Amino acid sequence: MQTIRGWLDENPARTDEVLWRNRSYIFFGTPGDSGHDGPEGASGVNLVAGRSVAVDSQRHVWGTPIFISSTSRINFGNGGELPRLMIAQDTGSAIRGNCRADLFMGTGEEAGALAGGLKETGSFHLLIPITASGRL
């Protein structure tokens, strides 16, 4: 992410052209009237740093609680680390498959730096009501 940002800073005349062609570039909406600071995710709710996760919307239902862990220490910048419970609230063009997810790290320079350096293998456990387990 930092490499792309550096290139865009050096080539401002081409920024719009490049960003609109890149399917992986994320355009967040602005916070609505809900009083929350986070951008609105694809689920229609404001994302919460360290608690919202983007998943494949063809395979997962919005609002599903997901317990995520990793062998690496991932610091969310707000004192929280994995493992932790997160909620499926967003999606992305590069997120395909049952066990793929992007963790929402927040907004701003610090969150961007954290997210840009994050690529980990971990565990992904869906928490579903026992009454729904027979429909899977």
What does this structure look like?
- By secondary structure, the chain is an alpha+beta fold.
- It has one domain: Barwin-like endoglucanases, CATH 2.40.40.10.
- It is 18% helix and 17% strand.
- The protein contains 3 helices and 5 strands, in the order H-H-E-E-E-E-H-E.
- It has helices at residues 2-10, 15-21, 109-116, and strands spanning 52-54, 65-70, 84-90, 102-103, 122-126.
- Strands 4-1-3-2-5 form a 5-stranded mixed beta sheet, with no helix packed on it.
- The longest helix is centred in the first third of the chain and has 9 residues, at 2-10.
- InterPro entries: 3D_dom, MltA, MltA_B, RlpA-like_sf.
- It is an enzyme of class 4 (lyase).
- Residues 51-127 form the 3D domain.
List strands and helices in order, with pairings.
Layout: H1 2-10, H2 15-21, E1 52-54, E2 65-70, E3 84-90, E4 102-103, H3 109-116, E5 122-126
Parallel strand pairs: 1-3
Antiparallel strand pairs: 1-4, 2-3, 2-5
Average pLDDT, rounded to a whole number, is 78
Which strand-content bin applies to the residues? 15-25%
Which regions contain 5 or more consecutive residues with pLDDT less than 50? none
Helical coverage, percent range: 10-25%
What's the main sheet like?
A: 5 strands, mixed
Number of domains: 1
State the name of the first-level CATH class: Mainly Beta
Name the CATH superfamily assignment. Answer: RlpA-like domain
* Rg over CA atoms: 16 Å
InterPro entries: 3D_dom, MltA, MltA_B, RlpA-like_sf
Enzyme class: lyase
EC number: 4.2.2.n1
GO molecular function: hydrolase activity, hydrolyzing O-glycosyl compounds; peptidoglycan lytic transglycosylase activity
